[in-house]
Amino acid sequence: MFPYLPMNEDDDALIEPETTDHQVTITLLKQYTYCPRVVYYETCTPGIRPRTYKMQAGEDAHKRERERASRRSLVAYDLPGGERRFDVRIISPALDLSGLIDEVVLTADEAIVIDYKLAAWTGDNHLVQLGAYGLLAEEAFNLPIRRGFIYLLKPRRFELVPIDEPLRNSVMETLRNVQYIRLREYMPPPVEQRSKCVSCEFRRFCNDI
Ligand code: SF4
Fold first, then answer.
1. Separation of 41 CA from ligand 1 center, angstroms?
2. pTM for this structure?
3. Where do the structural domains in the chain lie, given as residue ranges?
4. How open is the CA angle 127-133-139, to the nearest 5 degrees?
5. Which has fewest Cβ within 10 Å: 34, 60, 119, 132?
6. CATH 3.90.320.10 fits 21-187, yes or no
7. CB under 6 Å to ligand 1: residues?
């Protein structure tokens, strides 16, 4: 959709306690998939995002589920064993990308990324987010990533997501487009699926819908 923008390729991924302002956050990739214009508001007009009750409720539910998850056995992931790490923040200078992963399971021959969602079903935005987590974890832990899981909090159901070539390509294309918006301060057209605008926090700033 947008012109290709080259990325740095000189550094390895780091696991660090904090991110910087220089990396694209994975949240932006998810937001781009929902509506590209949200990325413009988030990156080019900082501080205008209203904080809603829904956002706070989502964070609280997420925290509660995380605590439950730490007590859940690895059988849920069809694994006999592995090391579980929670709240893993990874920065990749090579990808110019950073993210905070809910859970990473490390086994002898693979790493698995897990994301918890306050949702009833899995959307494209969730898949791109999980795929991006997979790319970060693969680089940081030097283990292959073949799959991840999304845990849907409302139906209490795990969904297996293959981290395959099409998903990886989709993540990279989304990343390039986010960088384009951020660096060029480009405001994309409104989302085609206008039903998304009904519950959007930026609704009052979009005067052309
Ligand atoms: S109101 Fe609609 S077009 Fe505007 S940012 Fe939100 S989803 Fe996108």
1. 10
2. 0.83
3. 21-187
4. 140
5. 60
6. yes
7. 35, 37-38, 190-191, 196-197, 200, 202-203, 206, 209
